[in-house]
Amino acid sequence: MNMSKGSNTAVPTTALRVEVGWRPGPGVPDADASALLLAGGKVRSDGDFVFYNQPAHSSGAVRHEGKRTDGGRVTDTLGVDLARVESAVERIVLAASTDGGTFGQVPGLSIEVTDTATGQVVARFDDPGATVETAFVLGELYRRQGAWKFRAVGQGYGSGLEGLATDFGITVDQPQHPAPGRGSTPPPPPVTAPPPPPPPVTAPPPPVVPPVTAPPPPAAPPAPAPRPVRLSKVTLTKAAPAVSLAKQGATSGALRVNLNWQTTQQPSGRGGLWGARRFELDLDLCALYELADGRKGVVQALGNAFGSLNRPPYIHLDGDDRTGATASGENLTVNLDHLHDLRRVLVFVTVYEGASSFAGLHATVTLQPQHGAPVDFSLDECTVPSTVCALALLTNTGGDLVVQREARYLVPERGVSPQRTVDRAYGWGMNWTPGRK
C-alpha cells in the first residue's frame, strides 16, 4: 500500500519489520533508522530511544537490526513487536538521520512496514519530499480505539539526530569544548560582591538537652543520574583505519562484531558443481586469538569451535548464518571484562560455499560495544580470487583495545586452507587439521 503524506492505515498484525530504504551511489550519504516510544508526546526516559547506539528497547518491543544491501537498495531495519509495547506508550515514531549530508542527497527514500510472518507489505511511504533536512520523521505507529495504525508523516529537522532526539525529550551527551587556544583572550573573572561583615559576638544561649530517641534510619543513597545518550559513531577508512575503544568509552561489557553481506554474483557450488547443484552464498565469520598467557586458537563454525564468553578464549561465535538471508548476519562477541586476558584478536571471514571469491560482495562490518560508540567500515571491492578476508585486528595496548581496519583480501595457495593462509599472513604460528561443520 503506497501512501501519501498524512494518510493512515490499519495495522492488522503485531510482528512487524520496518525498513527505511534508499538507493546508494557516489555522493549519497549514509542514513540510520531510529524509533522513539512516546507517552504524552515525549519519551518517559532516554531508554525509550532505539537507534544504533541503543539497539533494543528494554521491553523487547523495538529492536534496531542493522543495514543490508539488496537489489540496488540499502535498507536499515527496525523490528517491532506491538504485543510487547507497554500500555503507557501511545506512539512509536519511526525516523531516520543522515551521516555526511542531507536527505535531499538521498535518492529513493522510503519507509516500508511488513508483516514479519507473511512478508506482506502493510504500508509504504515513498518520496517524503526531503530537501535540506538531516533528520526525518517518516512515519509513526499509534494506538486508536484499542488497535494500532500507521501514519505517513514526512516531517524533517535541519538539526540532525540531536535535534530530533531533544525535541522528544531525550538528553543528549554534549561534546566538551576545548580550552582557548594560543592567542585567544581568556574570559574575564566573575565579579563577586565583598563578603558581609561578621555578626556581633553575643553570649551563647543555654544548652538544650534533647530527649533520648532512637537514631533515624540511614537515608537511602540518591539514585544515580541517568547518563546522557551518546549519538556519536566511528567509521574507519583507509585514511583513518584505527580507533581506541577506551577513548570511545568501551572498557567493559560485551563487544559485538557483526558481518552483513549481499552479493551481486550468481551463486555457484564448490569444486565446479555449477550444473549439479546451486548454493546460497555462505560466509563464515571467524577469529584467531592469542591470550595474555600465550595460548592461541581459533573461533569458527568449522569443528564447532564456537568459543565461550565466560571462560577462555572469552570470545563466542553466536551462530552460523548459512545463507546470509537473516537480518542479523553473522555475529561474534568479545567479553571486554576479560580484556586483561587477551593479547590480540584477528577477525576474518572465509567463503565456505556458494562462490569462488569475494568478487561482487557488498559487506559491512560493525563493532558495537555495550558501552560507547559503534565502529563500522565497509569492505573494498575485491579484485583478486580471494576466499579469505582479514577484517579487523584488535590489539591490547596496556589495557586498551585498539581496533585496526584490515579489509585485506588474501589468495590461498593451491592446497592451503583459508585459515592457514590468514595464519601465515599474520604470523600466528598454529598447526591446522581439516574440519567440517
UniProtKB/TrEMBL annotation:
Chain spans, region Disordered: 171-228
Segments of skewed composition (Pro residues): 185-227
Span of domain TerD: 1-168
InterPro entries hit by this protein: Stress/Tellurium_Resist, Tellurite_resistance_TerA, TerD
Pfam families registered for this protein in UniProt: TerD
Family in the record: Belongs to the CAPAB/TerDEXZ family.
Name of this chain's protein: TerD domain-containing protein
Organism: Streptomyces pyxinicus
Lineage per the UniProt record: Bacteria, Bacillati, Actinomycetota, Actinomycetes, Kitasatosporales
